[in-house]
Amino acid sequence: MTGGELMKFIIQRDRLVHSVQEVMKAVTSRTTIPILTGIKINTTTEGITLTGSDSDISIQSFIPAEEDGNEIVEVQASGDIVLNARFFSEIVKKLPMDTVEIEVQTNFQTIIRSGKAEFNLNGLDPEEYPHLPIIEEANLFKLPTDLLKTLIRQTVFAVSTSETRPILTGVNLKVENDELTCIATDSHRLAMRTANIESKINGTYSVVIPGKSLNELSKILDDTNELIEIVITENQVLFKAKNLLFFSRLLEGNYPDTSRLIPTDSKTDVIVKTKELLQAIDRASLLAKENRNNVVKLLTHDGGVIEVSSNTPEVGKVVEEVVAEAIEGEELKISFSAKFVMDALKALEGTDIKISFTGAMRPFVICPLHDDRMLQLILPVRTY
Predict the structure, then answer these.
(1) Tens of pLDDT, residues 189-201
(2) Which CA distances in Å does 202 have to 136, 177, 194?
(3) How far apart are CA 268 and CA 243, in angstroms?
(4) What share of residues in the chain are helix, strand, coil (percent, to 5)?
(5) Domains and CATH numbers, the chain
(6) Cα atoms in the Cβ-side hemisphere of radius 13 Å centred on 59
(7) Cβ 334 vs Cβ 357: under 8 Å
(8) Fewer CB within 10 Å: N-end or C-end of the chain?
(9) pTM > 0.70
(10) 208, 167 in Cβ contact below 8 A?
């Protein structure tokens, strides 16, 4: 670095803190690439761009020099630097004044000043920081941000946490006929949600986005109905919000065809208030042992009554009756993981749900009563 290209700017501290926190979601201390423990700061006359990455996820946050006629950043010299993410984020949070001055001197020495406080950090060479993927924006569609967050919330919990089938640790995102479908399964349960896409899209896509990426994305996005752009390529997906770019790698391989898992017929249908069933299962699981995945039993009785029970010989047992809105079909006795059913019930919208059973050993389906865009499927547990 020669004397002429040194970077220097003054910025509103709260804006800097906010952007640092956004990109920190991509930074991990457990990286084999030392430069990725840092945050890259790029300064131009337009404003400041911060980047954080762990090579799976990359997040870029842009702070414009001026917004709505207010100056946010005063850029005195353009340039780049990479600063240790952990120290930099802690420093910025604890600075005394509302503005921060950051100046890069020779050998990547970086001075951070605010009021009477002055830090001197050893920076890293920005040339060594990996380039973000260049994404052709041919395949682009848009969704309201809050709808995207809902789609993630209603599916991502069902991804597999086991690396034995890596493809199942992601959410399958399918686009066809102006409709988006999100599917997640860990082979014991499945969550599915469809939504309409605002913008027309050519062709059909099916990609698998790591569940971890979607969880991080969801934390950063605000609950607004502003549109977010989603761009899909061979091995990356890019989410573009205002002043924010979120890249994630895609999982390789084909996602299993889950459509044949979902039963089309049913032998017993139960309509029940979501909250009442959720709370009864929650209580029944209190005495169930963790190691057996909190098995809870459900029986249907005449007169529209569901019995929810759990029995752990060395602890005790619990029985509760829930009055259903309706029960149709054969009598039923089924056991399942309380956690899986509770996760599913929490994800669904609406006060009433319909549960369709096709026998004690077959997967059963839970849907909101008047909404076929959301579906939760659960495999029962064998109890002998």
Answers:
(1) 999 999 998 777 7
(2) 15, 9, 18
(3) 50
(4) 25, 45, 35
(5) 3-128 (3.10.150.10), 140-249 (3.10.150.10), 262-378 (3.70.10.10)
(6) 26
(7) yes
(8) C
(9) yes
(10) yes
